[in-house]
Model the fold of this input.
Amino acid sequence: MYRVLYRKWRPQTFSDVVGQPQVTKALACQIKENRLSHAYLFTGSRGTGKTSCAKIFAKAVNCLHPVGGDPCNECEICKGIDDGTVLDIVEIDAASNRGVDDIRQLREEVKFTPSQARFRVYIVDEVHMLTIEAFNALLKTLEEPPEHVKFILATTEVQKLPSTILSRCQRYDFRRIEPEVIAKRLQRISEEEGASLDSDAAVLIARLADGGMRDALSLLDRCLSTDEPPITVQTVTAAAGIMGRDYLFNLCRTIANHDTAAALTILDDLHKASCDTERLCTELINQFRNLLIVHTVTYPEKLIVATNEEIEENRRLAAMFTTEAILRALNVLSDAVDAIKKTQNRRVEAEMALIRLCRPETDTSVVALAQRVADLEQQIKNMQANGIPVQVQTPVAEPVFEEELPFAPDNIPAQPEALPFDAAPAFEDEALPFDDDDAPPFDSDLLWDETPPAPTQEVATPAAPEEFPFDGALPFDDDEFTPPEENASLFGGPAQVAANEPPPFAALPFDDDDFSPPAPAATVSAQQDESSNGALDNRTWTRCCIEAEALCRPLIGHLADSTAETRGSMLIIHTKNKLLAVLLRNEGFSNALATATEKVLGRKLTPKVEL
Ligand SMILES: [Zn+2]
Done:
């Protein structure tokens, strides 16, 4: 009989369970020492081993000859549980039995003593799906269950559980399994199955599974059934319905080169190959997130799941972008994903996003302007590094805002010698590439133009001597590329960041043992009225973080271990994560956090990071 891999390789003992030592050791220890609780709560994302552990637990507490907290898997009870002849282990899917009547029936049932086993064990999966009435009905049973009953509640969304349920259960948090751990396990299983899986393919499966062993094994199953061994990266990409990473790298390269026509051609090819537009944008977001990591961290291998080759490719690509450009790309793509969800014309949204990315001059947002200024600064640096004289005068005074100017803004151009860029004649008013009115309209003919006007050239060319081959369109190809100074000061040097950087999923707010579910919004906003200044309590801030991460995927993991306080109209976030400060410089991310906070606290605050 053919059995799918994840069933065939489902762990049979606690020591078989992969990647959750904090849970399995504690459970085995409790069983060994007979210190059992009557209700357990297993939380964690899908495929991390919650149900497997619940089944092992059910066998272990009933096993006739347990071995150090593990079931023997040999006795009649163990075997009976495995083949379903022992009826004292009851699995309930709360998604389909969510009403109060289902729970009332369960309450009647628990009164009866088990037929064969020592304990009747109820495993309630996806328990967050229960209705409020069902929760209340369950509560009474959880409070005073009969001696012979054990409950194991499992959920992927612990924040949806009422605190009354949480406080009555012993809680165990299952973590996303490390990609290396998954990859290693996959290779062992393929070996046992007599198939050969190359190590890059194993890493790719692990990355796609996003910390879930079940998803990883399902994908391996598909690979085994679709192709002759050995299983390679190509097999995996075909089985998972994704292309290789090459198209992402190519898209990044065309964006860096401002080559709109090439970017749209790639999109067209992907469209013909039935690539899903939303998935493409999400993958591009992940790709730019990788570039951001490579840009800011010395040893990105720890934070990016990728083959060595891909890391090298990412390094080359990251050198083609400034941090501002990457942040803007993340912003544009997040907006595109939002828009794609709401529209029928998904392809048009993706095209618009690519055009915005390739042509920052068509975008007048602050983020886009910041990117263009950063690009210009980088070009000037490159020119100087290449011995091209560029006269840049550092302004003596701090820059002042318009409303603080002691004289009318009209007077400023009257002193051209004070302009920092006076060496470059291109900065005449009429030649300014920033001028929106001069930007070409969104004409479809123009979009497909082989050579879209690159405004950066207008800036660089006049200053560059004729014989010098350097041109504005290729400012980042220089091997001697040095990151902008600003980065160095912001991150206190890349090496330090690598040392301090928490792994992105190690300390999700969900993992907090003290976490209790958020109070209803009304109560919270009443506590945090307009005038209140001061620290947000852990529960409220955790809820803000969850909302923000739901609104803005790139923030996931970065708010971990942070605290927050309100100060007037500001939301001050205290964190050791320097990358968070960079992320929140992005208008879109900052707005997402502001919206999330407003949803929880009932008032609009401007987020600000204090390291
Ligand atoms: Zn046994």
